[in-house]
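User: Could you go from structure to sequence for me? I need the amino acid at each position, not a summary. Structure tokens:
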């Protein structure tokens, strides 16, 4: 018997991203409940991104901090213009890049913005770098790469999906329906979950285990006034699932 047998686990990722996590949890006997707390919407403007992509071959480095940014890049790029070097924040982002037939030249030892910035810093001086990211994001990279000529191109923005409001109302309508754990795979997802609950006039029950993918997400959860119960050893989905499994095996 798996330690996750019968455990109800709420997945808050976007609909497109939730299937892998749901499938792996289900394989361990859990009951995944997919209610996205976040969805991807267009930025206020694509002007900076499109101008940068039209001159892609003039940049020394192309930087990605999420697979969502890679998806937008893939949809708007000119395939005849190839980036010189590409850096990705983690393996999921790198996998999305490689699916386009492109090579990732730099991957940090830890899959967080701080480690990404440290890995890029030796390559920054005097280089033209293009950072494709969410419209609202932490400024760890811009603050660290001051020696580079850095262009920040918003590719998308995160928003709370209106369609999830009735779903969370049903889920939290009675204690016997509550999930045993909630997975939080980014700081923006954590913030969006609380915003979603507030929009639905709900509070997050303190009895539910909060499973954080890493220290940045954990910090965001704490800033929101909650304490994460579980934290993955590295910021990957397999590590998050293993941390959840270990938690329930010990309780």
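Assistant: Here is the amino acid at each position, in order:
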């Amino acid at each position: 018997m798996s330690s996750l047998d019968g455990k109800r686990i709420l997945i808050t990722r976007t609909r497109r991203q939730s299937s892998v996590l749901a499938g792996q949890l289900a394989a361990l006997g859990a009951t995944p409940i997919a209610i996205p707390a976040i969805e991807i919407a267009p930025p206020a403007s694509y002007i900076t991104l499109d101008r940068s992509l039209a001159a892609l071959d003039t940049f020394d480095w192309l930087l990605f901090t999420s697979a969502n940014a890679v998806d937008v890049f893939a949809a708007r790029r000119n395939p005849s213009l190839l980036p010189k070097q590409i850096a990705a924040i983690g393996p999921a982002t790198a996998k999305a890049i490689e699916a386009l037939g492109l090579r990732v030249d730099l991957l940090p030892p830890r899959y967080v913005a701080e480690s990404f910035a440290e890995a890029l810093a030796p390559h920054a001086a005097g280089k033209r770098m293009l950072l494709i990211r969410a419209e609202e994001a932490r400024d760890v990279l811009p603050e660290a790469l001051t020696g580079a000529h850095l262009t920040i191109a918003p590719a998308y923005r995160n928003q709370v999906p209106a369609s999830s409001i009735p779903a969370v109302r049903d889920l939290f309508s009675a204690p016997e329906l509550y999930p045993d754990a909630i997975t939080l795979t980014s700081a923006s997802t954590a913030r969006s979950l609380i915003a979603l609950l507030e929009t639905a006039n709900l509070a997050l029950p303190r009895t539910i285990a909060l499973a954080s993918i890493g220290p940045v997400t954990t910090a965001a959860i704490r800033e929101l006034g909650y304490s994460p119960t579980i934290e993955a050893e590295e910021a990957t989905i397999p590590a998050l699932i293993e941390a959840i499994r270990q938690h329930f095996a010990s309780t």
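One structural detail worth keeping in mind: The beta strands are 8-11, 31-34, 39-41, 61-64, 86-88, 128-134, 149-159, 181-184, 209-212, 230-231.
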